[in-house]
């Protein structure tokens, strides 16, 4: 408990994630993100699953694990980085993550020549830590869990003049992740329902809503 009290005293204000002033994400935001990131993001296939016969319906799988770093997180990371101004890009960005967001941010920051620092708790998988380093990021191992890592990253952001990019509650991140939904409705016409595995909910805002009881279903992977 004491370590949480110590950490909470260092947390800094995140203007992109203010619960008192929530930001709306529109269809136009997601559409603009799709155009913005299209040159470096894989338009992954949505393939029909063998489970379709078992369950008596058409089931498709959106294979976003085919992105370079293995997850949909690249969509939001690239969108957020591209929306930074010139001065902010030059100073660099920072974030905290157990792995997928850190990898995505590190990879695309390197691609865009933006200095990136990622803070990862000591429980982060060593393979993902090594991947972030291979993408040129400054990796800092700090904290027992994500809460401590995030507080440390936000403190460093203020201290070093870096821009903190939240991997979850950030409108530019969520707009980018939502481009998965645009691809699904294009690849599976008349889709009835979309199943989205929800952890921190960053992928869910852009997913198309169900229109009826499902006979054509797509699951985002």
UniProtKB/TrEMBL annotation:
GO terms for molecular function: ATP binding; D-serine ammonia-lyase activity; L-serine ammonia-lyase activity; pyridoxal phosphate binding; serine racemase activity; threonine deaminase activity. Residues 39-199 form the Tryptophan synthase beta chain-like PALP domain. The keyword Transferase does not apply. It catalyses: L-serine = D-serine; L-serine = pyruvate + NH4(+); D-serine = pyruvate + NH4(+). This is Serine racemase. Its EC number is 4.3.1.17, 4.3.1.18, 5.1.1.18. The keyword Lyase applies. Pfam families: PALP. Belongs to the serine/threonine dehydratase family. Keywords: Lyase, Pyridoxal phosphate. SUPFAM superfamilies: Tryptophan synthase beta subunit-like PLP-dependent enzymes. Its cofactor is pyridoxal 5'-phosphate. Catalyzes the synthesis of D-serine from L-serine. D-serine is a key coagonist with glutamate at NMDA receptors. Has dehydratase activity towards both L-serine and D-serine. GO terms for biological process: D-serine metabolic process; isoleucine biosynthetic process; L-serine catabolic process; L-threonine catabolic process. Residues 212-221 have a biased composition (Low complexity).
